[in-house]
Write a structure and sequence with these properties.
- It comes from Stomoxys calcitrans (Stable fly).
- This is DUF229 domain-containing protein.
- It holds the Pfam family DUF229.
- Keywords: Membrane, Transmembrane, Transmembrane helix.
- Helix content is about 35%, strand content about 15%.
- It is globular.
- The N terminus is likely disordered.
């Protein structure tokens, strides 16, 4: 604004000057007095006008001052609120009048699922009920709907937290329903398995379909459970930010999208192995009980311009000879066929080759599951046994589908479609599942035998011929009691029982895919990804595994089967590689459902551990992810209705500490249900974990890693604190750990590698943490011990190790718990060692000097 003080007053000042002086200079007394009076009057007038001008100026200058705004702020606020209320009211009324603008109930369900299930996303306890009440019932929101506090509560505080009045009224209705259900359940007690726990209200609904139980069943007040209210005497949710919460275990719930992880993560698209469809196909003829190999005429022009090809097939047969009988196969002569041919029932695997002129234009392979007399006789014998026993229900089959190196968090992060399908289709998740050892072999052996690594080495060492054949694998027990068995694993070189191991002398199961893969990897075109075989001919290597599972389920749909199907190739070496297979894996799960397989099959979809090396493994999240694989169970509807206590147990165990030994006991529990096993030793507790039990029974709430036979090095229940990495205590401990590694290598296998490996030396400490743990000694006394976790580098070749040890600085007494982990790659350093037990600790002399 322009300053008007001088310009506006100039005419008045000019008048004063003119009136004060006469032109001729003559004055008298009266004239002087008159002049003075006139001047005073003019000055007064001038002052008034100046004051008015100044008031105008001051008005404009003070318009933005605090006092002026403050006097008018309430009116402005009221006006703004009034306008906002009119807009909201008009919008709400318009939306409520148009059902097409409302989200579907599925959308609301998944919205609740996303908020309650995916770690790192804010959970609003009453979101589900508010959405359902306001949108689908078209009733106004509660008058005082407030966002619940996010403070972490102890279990006792969670039990006593208050619910909104709306939820309390709903809870009273559920209690009445529960009393009716309980009265009806008393008259239908299970004859095979009994439990002291109460069944949940709706046994046919899986609470784990929504991991935080926000919307798993329409009749259950699940929203109140988010505030800590018990759904059942045994079901209580942990505080926000935890998967398990008890006195002995506080397992963190990780955010999948932490920046430290996402900077090393990317999404990939699914890529088919070939653009052309296969030239041949194989089908099983249920009438002739034979497979038929035929040429697909429709795609023939893509392989031959003349439309003519010469095709033949050869069989792949397991040799079973030599020092590693599991690694050798033989091939028959290539037998020509035209158009279509019926395959002999004795053939297990074939390779097909076609030529156009003098050029080979096609090669493919097919693993088969031919009908076998001994298998059919076994199945018929046990069916007759069931009939004689008076069994009215079909004996359930068991299907185990595994993916290597995928943590629970990475399943959500990298395979969201698969995760969503599991959560929305009533699968039961074991969120607190903790691995028991380093890599695949000991964790799978815990599932399949119930033994830990040391027990396996004593009883059936994989480094000795015939040893694995003498192991008490659970699939053998299933086969002995009327099941047809199968096992398949891709990437033959790194198979669980063969990588730097002897393997099996005899096929461990009825249908064994390894011989086919050995032949296919040798003769079919391969494409590598992250160092592993991604494509094998016209299919992804993993497709051969899961198609084998589909074939088992299809061929023996009306019989009982047990199968383990394990994929390595798209997940083992890269945390992002599995993103491209997300849709693919989800479709396999859907296929089993569409085939009717799920109607009488208990399915375990699981992994062994998370990513064990690479940049993500060096982060805090990566440390925990490595130890927390994903595990989901499918229970057929028929079994949910017959055994409501199983449903209750699975819901309880969702947020309890569990492990691979529990999975083993679950497999034994399923066998117990068949009433076919008469030898109690076949169903005995795990050797390595006497306190472990079936997942179909509720786990103790205060279960500790010690109870579950999980070494402190692998246990995720303990809250560690960061300590100064170069302290005297940490440095002394690190030197002791390096001495421990050197002694282990020097004495391993009767000093076999002592001269091959250079002793490691201290380089630096990367990080150090400390925690305390309650332990019970042999006399039942509880004591507190200090546990240190140290990550350190060694010379030569900058090996990065992570160790956990119970350590007393005063006495220098150290006890290493579990194995010492190697966090960076070591294949180039340890080529001189062929034994997996010492390989990760060795730096070969030839690599150094």
């Amino acid at each position: 604004m322009t300053d008007a003080s001088e310009s506006d007053l100039q005419p008045l000042l000019a008048d004063n000057v003119d009136d004060e002086t006469n032109g001729n200079g003559d004055t008298n007394h009266n004239n002087n007095n008159n002049t003075i009076n006139k001047n005073k009057t003019r000055k007064d007038i001038n002052r008034n006008e100046v004051a008015q001008q100044q008031r105008k100026l001051s008005f404009t200058r003070k318009s933005h001052k605090f006092r002026y705004i403050w006097k008018r702020k309430p009116l402005l606020y009221l006006l703004a609120i009034g306008i906002l209320m009119l807009v909201i009211n008009a919008t709400f009324n318009r939306n409520m009048g148009d059902d097409n603008l409302l989200p579907s109930e599925d959308d609301v369900n998944f919205l609740s699922h996303v908020h309650s299930h995916v770690p790192g996303m804010r959970v609003i306890s009453n979101l589900t009920s508010l959405l359902k009440t306001s949108l689908f019932n078209k009733s106004p929101l509660p008058a005082k709907a407030t966002t619940p506090k996010t403070t972490k509560l102890s279990p006792k505080e969670w039990k006593t937290s208050k619910m909104p009045l709306l939820l309390k009224q709903k809870s009273l209705k559920n209690k009445a329903k529960y009393k009716i259900f309980k009265a009806n359940a008393k008259s239908k007690k299970d004859k095979v398995f009994t439990s002291e726990t109460k069944p949940i209200i709706n046994a046919s609904v899986s609470l784990s379909s929504n991991p935080l139980n926000a919307m798993a069943a329409a009749d259950l007040d699940l929203d109140s459970s988010l505030n800590g209210t018990l759904l059942d005497d045994n079901i209580i949710l942990p505080p926000k930010g935890y998967l398990v919460w008890s006195e002995f275990c506080k397992m963190p719930n990780l955010d999948p999208y932490l920046p430290e992880v996402m900077k090393n993560f990317h999404r990939e698209k699914y890529k088919p192995c070939k653009l052309l469809d296969p030239l041949t196909r194989v089908d099983f003829n249920a009438i002739t009980q034979r497979y038929t190999l035929s040429i697909v005429e429709d795609v023939l022009p893509g392989f031959s311009k003349t439309g003519k090809v010469d095709c033949c097939y050869q069989t792949i047969t397991r040799n079973g000879t030599g020092d590693k009988p599991d690694d050798h196969v033989s091939f028959s002569k290539c037998m020509s066929f035209v158009g279509q041919t019926s395959l002999d029932p004795s053939i297990d695997n074939i390779l097909v080759k076609c030529r156009a002129g003098n050029k080979q234009v096609y090669a493919n392979g097919y693993p088969l599951m031919p009908e076998r007399k001994e298998i059919r006789e076994r199945l018929n014998m046990w069916k007759k046994y069931d009939d004689d026993l008076g069994a009215t229900d079909k004996t359930p089959s068991v299907l185990m589908i595994g993916i290597d190196s995928i943590s629970r968090v990475n399943l959500i992060r990298a395979m969201p479609k698969t995760a969503r399908y599991l959560y929305e289709n009533e699968w039961y998740e074991m969120s607190g599942f903790n691995k028991i050892d380093d890599n695949t072999f000991p964790n799978l052996m815990a599932v399949l035998t119930g033994m830990n690594r040391s027990r396996v080495m004593d009883k059936c060492s994989p480094y000795k011929l015939h040893a694995l054949d003498n192991c008490d694998f659970i699939w053998r027990t299933y086969r002995e009691h009327g099941y047809v068995t199968a096992y398949a694993e891709d990437e033959a070189f790194i198979n669980t029982f063969n990588y730097m191991k002897v393997g099996f002398v005899e096929p461990p199961v009825d249908y064994y895919l390894r011989p086919f893969l050995l032949g296919a990897e040798k003769h079919l075109e391969t494409r590598l990804k992250s160092g592993l075989i991604s494509c094998l001919g016209y299919k992804h290597a993993a497709d051969f595994i899961y198609d084998y599972a589909v074939e088992l389920a299809r061929r023996y749909k009306n019989d009982t089967f047990f199968g383990l199907f394990w994929a390595n190739t798209f997940s083992h070496n890269d945390i992002s590689a599995c993103t491209g297979m997300d849709e693919h894996i989800m479709q396999y799960l859907k296929k089993f459902k569409d085939m009717g397989t799920m109607e009488n099959t208990i399915v375990i979809f699981f992994s062994d551990h998370g990513m064990r090396f690479g940049p993500i493994r060096k982060t805090y999240s990566g440390h925990l992810e490595e130890r927390l694989p994903f595990v989901f169970l499918w229970l057929p509807t028929r079994l949910r209705q017959k055994y409501p206590n199983f449903v209750n147990a699975l819901n309880v165990n969702k947020n309890r500490l569990t492990n691979p030994y529990d999975t083993h006991m679950t497999l034994k529990h399923i066998l117990e249900l068949t009433r076919r096993v008469k030898d109690d030793n076949k169903l005995a507790n795990s050797d390595a974990c006497p306190k472990c039990q079936s997942l179909l029974k509720p786990m103790p709430q205060n279960r500790s890693c010690q109870d579950a036979a999980i070494e402190a090095h692998w246990c995720t229940c303990l809250p560690y604190e960061n300590i100064y990495k170069n302290s005297k205590t940490v440095l002394n401990l690190t030197h002791l750990l390096i001495d421990y590694i050197n002694d282990f290598v020097a004495t391993f296998r009767n000093r076999t590698f002592a001269k091959l490996c250079v002793p490691l030396k201290f380089d630096s400490v990367d990080s150090a943490y400390r925690t305390t743990q309650l332990e019970t000694d042999s006399e039942g006394r509880v004591k507190t011990v200090d546990i240190y976790r140290v990550t350190f580098y060694t010379k030569p070749n900058k090996g990065l190790f992570e160790a956990t040890a119970i350590y007393d600085p005063e006495t220098s007494r150290m006890e290493v718990t579990g194995e010492i982990s190697r966090l960076n790659t070591y294949s180039g350093d340890s080529d001189c060692v062929t034994d997996g037990g010492a390989k990760k600790y060795c730096s070969c002399r030839k690599k150094i000097f």
